[in-house]
Give the backbone structure.
Amino acid sequence: MSKIVITGGAGFIGSHIAEALVQDHEVVIVDNLDDYYSPALKQRNLDCVMAKGDVDFIKGDITDLDLVRKVIDDTVDYVFHEAAQAGVRISVEDPFKPNNINVLGTLNVLKASLDAGVRRLINASSSSVYGKVQYLPFDEAHPTMPVSPYGVSKLAAEHYCRVFHEIYGLPTVSLRYFTVYGSRMRPDLGISIFTRKLLANEPITVFGDGEQTRDFTYIDDIVRVNLRLLETDAADGYAMNVGGGQRITVNDLIAHLRKITGSTSEVVYSNKQKGDAEHTMADVGRAKEVVGYMPEVSIGEGLGRFVEWHRSDGNGCS
Ligand SMILES: NC(=O)c1ccc[n+]([C@@H]2O[C@H](COP(=O)([O-])OP(=O)(O)OC[C@H]3O[C@@H](n4cnc5c(N)ncnc54)[C@H](O)[C@@H]3O)[C@@H](O)[C@H]2O)c1
């Protein structure tokens, strides 16, 4: 049994990772229940984790180094760093908040982890670090030219992780997640919004012409690759793509969801939003080679599971 700290463990991805670990490990969650989206949903996420096993929940802010040091002390083996101000659009409106949480907060988590001698820090990064497309799919050698303040903050955090490995010897891995979906997903993400509106037969707004493409990754695949990093040190110092294995247009995504829901919602097209990436698609070759990662849940299967979860009240655990 290891002692594992999960920052942002009350959020979408962090709570799924916590749920997968809680029976076999001592899990500590640190999360400030930020109100970017409803704290009640985060409390629900925590309840889902606690229903599976004992968890030590500490309500706290990762921008507070003293607090982070208290949470990540020398009894901690691993840190999954999921806390962040996620979301491209909010970062366009207010670049300071993502910078504080994603850059300064990550630096605090790194420094505390280094001083505590943790065995590995697994950092949640993002496909947003790529930004401008030079070729697809993105491999990790693709230039990083973020197109949003959020992407800049995630790239800076990733570089801090690499440098802490190279200079100070702290084992770190950054996982570049490509749009993650599944039960309890963030309510501000496209699949969430579209599904809610489709089920209510309300109009859907698409920003741009809907021909932008995304590589969507089902939450179970994300959890699986995170857990693998408790078993191998082969990935230390790397940033690795974690994608779902195919890209589809937003128009095709809506067509899939419309078929599953049987909805009659009309689609309204509006101006492209600042900061949105045009296309994303992961080459997962490195993650396959280093940790044996292959996405297992296809978009059709994942969307079916997600709509099912939504239909069965959209507020349960899975
Ligand atoms: N969901 C995606 O599609 C996606 C894609 C790429 C990368 N990511 C990254 O994955 C990670 C998890 O994302 P998510 O979708 O689960 O987001 P989320 O917002 O559901 O979870 C983040 C959690 O961090 C907490 N938090 C925010 N600021 C904090 C602070 N100052 N101190 C402590 N806790 C704080 C929030 O309360 C929240 O519970 C983030 O690092 C995000 O950037 C997510």
Summary: The longest strand covers residues 120-126. Residues 8, 10-14, 31-34, 42, 61-63, 82-86, 101, 105, 124, 126, 177, 179-180, 186 surround nicotinamide-adenine-dinucleotide (CB under 6 Å).
